[in-house]
Amino acid sequence: MSKLLSIRTYGDPILREPSRPVEAVTPEIRTLVEDMFHTMKASQGIGLAAQQIGRTEAVCVVEIPEDYDYDEETGERLNPDTPLRLTLINPEIVEASSRKCGVEEGCLSFPGITGNVDRPWAIVVNHLDLDGQPRATRLQGLLARAVQHEMDHLAGDLFIDRFSHVKKLAVRSKLKRLEEETISQMALT
Questions:
Q1: CB hemisphere CA count around 11 (13 angstroms)
Q2: Burial, 21: exposed, middle or buried (Cβ in 10 Å; 0-12, 13-18, 19+)?
Q3: How many helices and strands (H and E) does the chain possess?
Q4: Is 3 inside a domain boundary?
């Protein structure tokens, strides 16, 4: 039975902590992954990294609806040979397209805050799967974007770091408020 985990919000120092590699894919790691998927879905997200639930393992999960995996021009699937529910353990981007795409992103750790972020349209990620097997996975579109967003978390980077200077100024008061709320909540626990 999966557990619903608490999502850490901006102001919690763990969001800035780089992850540590997973030495072996154990039953504990598999349980963590299932709990992360459960938490992500309950929060209506499409991705979640370990730091967002207070852990530092190099683990992230992503799942996008099939409706979001189509090329608008051709109507074809962008990632036809890739499951849309991905577990990435010790992920590393080994290739990124020169083609970039700017899209409005949100984050479960930043409720109510969104901003345009430029990212490569396509990537290749080396990672371990849930069986501990090495994989090289080629991703495009939203699936590639979601994986890059979660991998930023694993590096201790946040999507707000990629905002333009003007956007950072525009959300400054919201960020300050969220940080104060987070620190207040942490003091109560």
A1: 18
A2: exposed
A3: 3, 7
A4: no
Q: Is residue 33 domain-resident?
A: yes
| Structure tokens, 170 | 């525009």
Matching residue, tokens 């990629």: 162
pLDDT in tens, 104-114: 999 999 999 99
CATH of the domain at 153: 3.90.45.10
Nearest to 153 by CA among 12, 13, 16, 32: 16
Separation between Cα atoms, residue 61 and residue 63, nearest integer Å: 7
Q: How many of the other CB atoms lie within 10 Å of CB of 31?
A: 12
| Catalytic member of 92, 95, 150, 180 | 150
Contact in structure between 138 and 82 (CB atoms under 8 Å): yes
Output the pTM of the full model.
0.96
- 134 three-class SS: strand
> Annotated catalytic, 150?
yes
